[in-house]
Write a structure and sequence with these properties.
Elements: E1 2-7, E2 14-19, E3 25-29, H1 32-38, E4 43-49, E5 53-57, E6 62-67, E7 73-78, E8 85-90, E9 97-101, H2 106-111, E10 113-118, E11 132-133
Parallel strand pairs: 3-10, 10-11
Antiparallel strand pairs: 1-2, 2-5, 3-4, 4-9, 6-7, 7-8, 8-9
The structure holds zinc ion (2 copies).
Family: Belongs to the Gfa family.
GO molecular function: carbon-sulfur lyase activity; metal ion binding
Domain CENP-V/GFA: 4-120
Length: 140
């Protein structure tokens, strides 16, 4: 288990994420919501227990809620000053699981490989395959 430090663009929020060895990889999400909210072709994430994230500066982040594919709510937690999305909670995953943005952890940006790609169905047609790609999500 390694602790990684995260920081939003403006530095108002800082946090720590604990990741096991097999979680120390980016999961690329190609869904259209990630393109719109993130401004790029995909976002880089990891699924973790809620207890593995600790906000160390900035207090409770702001919240943006939308309906996901499944019809269940997705709650996005973001910095109110610079709008960086720190993590998401998908209600369908239960109360104790969240999705953190690995692209916001400087060490992860430098060192992580790609673990898998999800929402391959929405991938830009000019993107090459980097990791194992799932049409939507891996089978449970
Ligand atoms: Zn910020
Ligand atoms: Zn996505």
């Amino acid at each position: 288990m390694t602790t990684y430090e995260g920081k939003c663009h403006c530095g108002h929020h800082q946090w720590e994420v604990k990741l096991e060895q097999d979680q120390s990889k980016h999961i690329l999400c190609h869904c259209d919501t990630c393109k719109i909210l993130g401004g790029g072709a995909f976002t880089m994430n990891q699924i973790i227990p809620k207890s593995a994230l600790k906000i160390t500066k900035g207090g409770e982040p702001s919240n943006y809620k939308y309906k996901g594919d499944s019809g269940n709510s997705v709650n996005c937690s973001y910095c109110p000053k610079c709008t960086t999305h720190i993590y998401h909670h998908q209600e369908i995953m239960g109360p104790d699981t969240i999705v953190v943005r690995t692209s916001l952890l400087p060490e992860a940006r430098k060192n992580f490989d790609v673990g898998a790609e999800i929402y391959g169905k929405d991938k830009m047609k000019w993107e090459k395959e980097i990791g194992q790609t799932f049409e939507v999500l891996p089978p449970q």
